[in-house]
User: Which sequence fits this backbone?
């Protein structure tokens, strides 16, 4: 027999445990955070549903009346920009930079209110969905981050002050839950949170934030299952033959990404004194209509390929069911840039995947690489 071993608890542990369990402020705060995390995830699920159906309705319209977008897209773009400037200027853009600005430790409460709120959440959902209904080249992933952050930020009104849950933690939980639900990747949201939490010394609600993120992501998984927008990417005959075309894809995506970023910086800062910058500043609604017309023309020229987020086009390429034009990369590049330049609430992640995937497909044909889906996947990653 083994001798009896007496376990002695530290005298402070029972006291701390009793205090923890009896603090209703703390548990109320945690309950509110969990409830709003689920609500944030469900909000992104609703947004995803609306965006997908809006895009489907546009393509039905476009296939029935090929000339319809030449009128509908410019009018819609002008209306979206007018509504954005008039009622929700903080909803413009992709959404992720706005959440990052709200996370800045030096940002005051009034500044945060400009970028994340329930009002902006509703506006972002409606305006971004309208953008897809108009056939603009945009995605819903970046906007989903701002949408979820706005829902979580609203939770601060219901959390007791003694719960010690900071506004910063709520924003991280909301933004990361948006990433988790939008991309169907709870771990992606957790990684975002870890990166942001590591920048701040106060980590009292660290575990609660991670639970909230996973719950937000699980809302998306519960609604759509283990969904895959692109089907199964089959990588075959992986070997040294991939090195040269793989490097070409990496370099091409790097150049394209750098050029796109530079174009956005120059276009959106408005520091240039050229005619386009002056027109965008002085007549933003007219400028938006002009941008919408450019997107419509590009869509008509490409037989509808450049309209929307680009998911369907990428999936068709991966399944080898698409006769991709060699001009697709250029046309989609310009359509996405012009859409963002117009000033509508628009994410650029999905169109970037489409451009990168098409670059990989073009280089697979150029180098006669046997397994095009491999280079398409590398292009999407790039």
Assistant:
């Amino acid at each position: 027999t083994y001798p009896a071993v007496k376990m002695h608890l530290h005298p402070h542990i029972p006291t701390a445990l009793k205090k923890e369990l009896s603090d209703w402020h703390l548990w109320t705060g945690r309950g509110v955070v969990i409830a709003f995390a689920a609500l944030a995830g469900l909000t992104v699920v609703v947004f995803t549903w609306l965006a997908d159906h809006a895009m489907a309705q546009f393509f039905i319209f476009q296939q029935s009346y090929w000339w319809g977008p030449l009128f509908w897209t410019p009018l819609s773009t002008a209306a979206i920009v007018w509504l954005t400037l008039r009622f929700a200027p903080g909803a413009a853009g992709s959404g992720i930079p706005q959440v990052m600005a709200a996370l800045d430790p030096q940002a005051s409460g009034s500044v945060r209110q400009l970028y994340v709120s329930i009002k902006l959440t509703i506006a972002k959902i409606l305006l971004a969905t309208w953008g897809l209904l108009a056939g603009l080249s945009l995605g819903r992933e970046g906007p989903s981050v701002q949408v979820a952050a706005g829902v979580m930020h609203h939770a601060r009104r219901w959390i007791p002050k003694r719960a010690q849950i900071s506004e910063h933690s709520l924003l991280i939980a909301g933004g990361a839950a948006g990433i988790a639900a939008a991309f169907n990747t709870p771990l992606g949201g957790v990684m975002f949170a870890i990166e942001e939490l590591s920048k701040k010394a106060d980590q009292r609600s660290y575990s609660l934030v991670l639970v909230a993120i996973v719950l937000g992501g699980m809302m998306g998984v519960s609604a759509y299952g283990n969904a895959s927008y692109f089907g199964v990417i089959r990588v075959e005959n992986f070997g040294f033959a991939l090195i040269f075309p793989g490097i070409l894809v990496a370099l091409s995506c790097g150049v394209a990404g750098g050029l796109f970023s530079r174009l956005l910086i120059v276009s959106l800062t408005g520091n240039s004194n050229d005619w386009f910058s002056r027109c965008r500043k002085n007549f933003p609604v007219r400028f938006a209509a002009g941008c919408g017309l450019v997107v419509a023309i590009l869509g008509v020229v490409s037989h509808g390929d450049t309209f929307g987020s680009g998911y369907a086009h990428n999936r068709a390429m991966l399944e080898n069911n698409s006769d991709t034009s060699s001009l697709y990369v250029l046309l989609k590049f310009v359509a996405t840039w012009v859409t963002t330049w117009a000033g509508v609430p628009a994410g650029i992640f999905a169109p970037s995947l489409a451009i990168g995937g098409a670059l990989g497909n073009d280089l697979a044909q150029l180098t006669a690489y046997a397994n095009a889906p491999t280079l398409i996947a590398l292009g999407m990653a790039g």
Q: What stands out?
A: Residues 24-64 form the longest helix (41 residues). The CA atoms of residues 258 and 366 lie 22 Å apart. The chain has 17 helices and no strands. The two ends are 64 Å apart (CA to CA).
